[in-house]
Design goal:
With 192 residues, the chain is an alpha+beta fold. 24% of the residues lie in helices and 32% in strands. The protein is globular, with a radius of gyration of 15 Å.
Length: 192
């Protein structure tokens, strides 16, 4: 996986530092799937994904985050509505995997960016792509009361090796709710 650091500010100038964990091209979602990843041309079932992908140093990085956002997109070109639905389900799926392995004190959010409709040559390299990719964003530092969503948009909009939010059809953040009583995780809208 590739790590990229970026910072952004909210509408009041409060800074948030992010670390983007971008899995390489050989790790991507099966076309139009919401629960199955392809790793080295091999299908990984949902119950295997967390233990296969989030281990060692990656797990240590996740465990030290102040909060985590799962960024999910879809390359589905038939409909932006369908792409947003697929991306939302992907974000919820990965958030559920992470909820099972990171400390409960770390908030997890689902970031649905919908359809990745405009290719970013400086962002997509031989090693990584933002199309149907598995991407986890960790908050490393955050000024008090900073709006993470606004600061993340700002961080991605700056000219660098991250695609601008305008390259996606959506930018919707919901808090992932851990439901220990039912033994399952769920999504709910919530404050960022």
């Amino acid at each position: 996986a590739v790590l990229r650091t970026a910072s952004g500010v909210d509408h009041r100038g409060r800074e948030v530092v992010f670390e983007f964990l971008i899995f390489p091209r050989n790790v991507h979602w099966e076309r139009n799937a919401t629960d199955t990843l392809i790793v080295n041309k091999r299908r990984i079932e949902p119950n295997e994904a967390a233990n296969e992908l989030f281990t060692g140093k990656i797990k240590q990085r996740l465990d030290s985050a102040k909060s985590i956002l799962v960024l999910a997109s879809s390359a589905n070109t038939t409909s932006q509505t369908l792409a947003a639905q697929i991306a939302g389900k992907r974000a919820a799926m990965v958030a559920g995997w992470l909820a099972g392995i990171v400390p409960a004190s770390i908030p997890i959010f689902e970031l649905n960016v919908g359809h990745y409709h405009t290719h970013c040559a400086r962002c997509d390299t031989n090693d990584i792509t933002w199309r149907d990719a598995l991407i986890v964003v960790m908050v490393r530092q955050k000024e008090w009361r900073a709006s993470v969503g606004v600061a993340l948009k700002d961080a991605m909009a700056k000219p660098r090796n991250l695609p601008s939010p305008s390259r996606f059809s959506a930018f919707a953040i919901v808090r992932h709710t851990r439901n220990s009583a039912a033994g399952q995780d769920a999504s709910s809208t919530g404050d960022k």
